[in-house]
Description:
The protein has one domain. Helix 1 packs antiparallel against helix 3 and helix 2 packs across helix 3 (113-133). Helix content is 53%, strand content 16%. The chain has helices at 2-37, 50-63, 113-133, and strands at residues 75-78, 83-84, 91-92, 97-103, 106-112. The strands form 2 sheets. A 3-stranded antiparallel beta sheet has the order 1-4-5. The chain has a two-stranded antiparallel ribbon with strand order 2-3. By secondary structure, the protein is α+β, with helices and mostly antiparallel strands.
Amino acid sequence: xxxxxxxxxxxxxxxxxxxxxxxxxxxxxxxxxxxxxxxxxxxxxxxxxxxxxxxxxxxxxxxxxxxxxxxxxxxxxxxxxxxxxxxxxxxxxxxxxxxxxxxxxxxxxxxxxxxxxxxxxxxxxxxxxxxxxx
Length: 134
């Protein structure tokens, strides 16, 4: 009876991982749609060319320049100002939604909400592709 339990647990963990990726992707799509449908809704400095940013982001994740973040590894709130987004390089305006990601005991990394969701989604995809390759 132990073997089927282990198989069920393994399958459940796989489904949870897929669900987390789906949720992250959905959040990203909602944020992107809001920016496109209502430009006044966009966060200060949060607009970017999706394809160009995603291409650079994937390269930076693959080389290790940016960490492979997982869900739950951040804090979010209104920006105090003075930080640039590590994903797109644009300054995060005061009061805009800002995500702060801890990084190797050093100073935290800061990102716009849309950039953060894209970063997390691409990190999950890269992590998933590495698991499949091994």
